């Protein structure tokens, strides 16, 4: 909201300055025909002084209250009415503009920015009445010309349109701020879901499974663990947005992946360093760990897995392949619908946050391969 407010008041200030220059040109061109030329320059001096003060005063949010708005409208109205004293009745009847010409519209714009179309229309009507009063006081009330009428219409339109646009802009900015807040909260929920899945939920699921196998009191413990797992999954939905992280140093991805090597896991990496931003490297390693955990849980004790790291010119690709039974085509969608978010959050969610993509190849009896591609630069999209 502060950015919009500043931009709107700066726009009004710029208009004041440009309209003042135009008014000065008009007064300089017409002063020799005024009834009181010196008074015309005096009105211009008032306009110059008020423009300088108003630009400074409206730049301070603490001063944008009724006293300043009322003073702004009063000065504009006074400059319009001063036309009766400065100009001749003949010139007024001939359709010459008032002394401040379009400069008075700055007061209408200020009221519209401060309070929307209602206040903008109110200020426009006050100045319209002042324009009409000029002709009445000059004795030319029946000879109101097209110039005066057009000026009044423009003032009314400025108050209505600018006030309406300001209201729409404020509503749009509020909706955008809300959308950003929701997106931030959603990302934090996904991050917490990944962390919980990688630790607490896996332990609870293991306790539930082993308790059921052992029976007796262990079965009751397993049942309680299962209930807590379900309750914890339900709670993964609300959290405060995480504070932004400061960028950290680059890290070599190879040692983070080779740490998973074992008798059943083969890790192949390039001979040279594969560097990523530290946060990105840790997230990729965590996604690989989640994939290997799925192999251990779903493919049996004797299953083998192979991790392959490939270093491309603009992205890094990590593949995790196993020789398990494979998956049915809709297996991942069903798991996500049941609240099992291992692939959806721990793998796809992490890679998506890094601007990358995940491709999964699987067929019954032929194992599963998960291919994760992330860009080297944060926020960049991988090459296709």
User: What does the overall shape look like?
Assistant: elongated
Poorly predicted segments: 237-246, 336-342
Number of helices: 12
Secondary-structure element series: HHHHHHHHEHEEHEEHHEE
Distance between the termini: 39 Å
Strand content: 5-15%
Q: Can you tell me the number of structural domains?
A: 2
Largest sheet descriptor = 5 strands, mixed
Mean pLDDT: 82
Helix content: 55-70%
Give the strand tally.
7
Radius of gyration: 36 Å
Main sheet strand line-up? 2-4-5-7-6
Domain Histidine kinase/HSP90-like ATPase: 285-377
Keywords: Kinase, Membrane, Transferase, Transmembrane, Transmembrane helix, Two-component regulatory system
Protein name: DUF5931 domain-containing protein
Transmembrane segments: 7-28, 34-55, 67-86, 98-114, 121-138, 144-166
Keywords, separated by commas or semicolons:
HATPase_C_sf; five-stranded mixed beta sheet; transmembrane; alpha+beta; Heat Shock Protein 90; 12 helices; two-stranded antiparallel ribbon; single chain; 384 residues; elongated; 2 domains
Explain what you see.
With 384 residues, this protein is of the alpha+beta class. The chain has 2 domains: 2-178; 245-384, Heat Shock Protein 90, CATH 3.30.565. It is 64% helix and 10% strand. The chain is built from 12 helices and 7 strands. It has helices spanning 2-30, 37-58, 66-81, 83-86, 89-94, 105-137, 146-214, 217-235, 253-258, 278-298, 331-337, 342-353; strands at residues 250-252, 265-268, 275-277, 305-311, 315-322, 357-362, 368-375. Strands 2-4-5-7-6 form a 5-stranded mixed beta sheet. A two-stranded antiparallel sheet has the order 1-3. A hairpin with a 5-residue loop joins β6 and β7 (368-375). α1 runs parallel beside α6, α6 runs antiparallel to α7 and α7 (146-214) runs antiparallel to α8. The two termini are 39 Å apart.
